[in-house]
Amino acid sequence: MKADAVRGHLDGLLLAVLEQGPLHGYAIITAVQRRSGGALDLRTGTIYPALNRLERQGLLASDWESTGERRRRSYRLTESGRAGLAERRADWRAFTAAIGSVLDPAPGGAT
Amino acid sequence: MNADGSGDGGGRGAAEADYRARFAGLLQGPARTRARLVEEVGNGFADTVAAWRDTGLDEAGAARRAEAEFGTPEEVAASCEGELTLAQARHTAAVVASTAPLLLACWYLLGHAETARDGWLPQLAQSLAAGLAGVAGVAAVGAVLALGATGRASRWVAVPRRLPGAVGWLGTAASGAMAGSAAALTVAAALATDWPLVALAGVASAACHAGVASSARACRRQVRAAARSA
């Protein structure tokens, strides 16, 4: 899937992989790639400013955690983030249902 | 690793250090935000190199594949530019919002300072106070609005493209008012009976001017750089 197409949904993807619990940047990247089966064409380094933006908007919160030699910034969903994710899911379902009914109409359905 | 990504790349960690240095050199903006991005992105790249190394690639091969997947320092830095510009605008707005009320307080102090002799200067100072206080008041309100627009509100309403530039000029106007205020308070201190207090207000005003002017300049510079690279 092209990078431009992914970018429009990046916020929703990041919020979705954090739904199960806090993750640091690289774990978020691998979770997105694993869930998408590697189909998303995305320069993975570009998720860091997106995480910063979501935090500025109050959808994520983060803290530094020390693991071994490195410090990692661990992100978690806020209550607003959960609400934002639910909203994006509802929008996405409505969107795919509308497009799907045009591209792939049910046999015998309205034309 | 060589600049073109070829060669043996030196020992373990050399490619990661090189990537981090190249990335850090491309960023502009508030030091704290830059430091955070450099650490996060640097660690993310190091994790990506380690993952490719675990597949059996040598150092140079792992670094090349990691950069292809993660993005070059130029690509990642470009993706950070918007956030860094907003961070600088928010920093400038915070400095203006926190120092402009101090300017108003300084002028209030001058208004109530006893002068050793009546004359044209105190009256001139009072008129100047009204103008400069007006600029400071407008700048403070504008700065608070900018902080609101670039914070949680940006979830619902996109940040206007020209807002960081406007914040830069707002800071410049506020710093000009502070410079005028510092000069006027210095002169007024010479005529005031309780001159140490007025002189202190002048020094505070000059310090605020320095802080706001520096941040506003950085904000305007960053907006220009972002416009050039867009």
Characterization of this structure:
Chain A: It holds the Pfam family PadR. Chain A: Residues 14-87 form the Transcription regulator PadR N-terminal domain. Chain A: InterPro entries: Metal_resp_DNA-bind_regulator (IPR052509), Tscrpt_reg_PadR_N (IPR005149), WH-like_DNA-bd_sf (IPR036388), WH_DNA-bd_sf (IPR036390). The complex is a heterodimer of chains A (111) and B (230). Chain A is an alpha+beta fold. Chain A contains five helices and three strands, in the order H-H-E-H-H-E-E-H. A three-stranded antiparallel β-sheet of chain A has the order 1-3-2. Chain B is built from seven helices and no strands. Chain B folds into two domains: 14-71; 88-229, Four Helix Bundle (Hemerythrin (Met), subunit A) (Up-down Bundle). Chain B is 79% helix and 0% strand. At the A-B interface, helix 3, helix 4 and strand 3 of A face helix 2 and helix 4 of B.
Quick overview of this protein structure:
The complex is a heterodimer of chains A (111) and B (230). Chain A is an alpha+beta fold and 111 residues long. Chain A has helices at 3-7, 10-17, 25-36, 47-56, 79-103, and strands at residues 23-24, 60-67, 70-77.
